[in-house]
Design goal:
alpha+beta; single chain; 82 residues
Length: 82
């Protein structure tokens, strides 16, 4: 089943742009997913389990590299937004 996830990141940093850019660049590195970035969110689309695995890996990696960050996610199972 396809899954579309919309993700917004709110880093707990005064200089918030670098952590956001880093997170977005890491998502774009996954060639088996469709990723498109908008001013307020990034859309990730692909096979359900794969999208969830990537989100799990990348939110953990963000925490390890940049510390605290708030992720707001919307999930639309069975819908292809891109």
């Amino acid at each position: 089943m396809m899954l579309t996830a919309e993700i917004s990141l709110y880093p707990n940093h005064e200089n918030f742009i670098p952590p956001i850019k880093s997170f977005i660049e890491r998502l774009h590195a996954y060639k088996d997913l469709r990723v498109q970035t908008f001013p307020t969110a990034t859309i990730v689309m692909g096979e359900h389990d794969r999208v969830m695995d990537v989100i799990k890996e990348e939110t953990k990696a963000h925490r390890e590299e940049h510390g605290m960050g708030i992720f707001v996610c919307k999930f639309i199972p069975g819908y292809e937004a891109l």
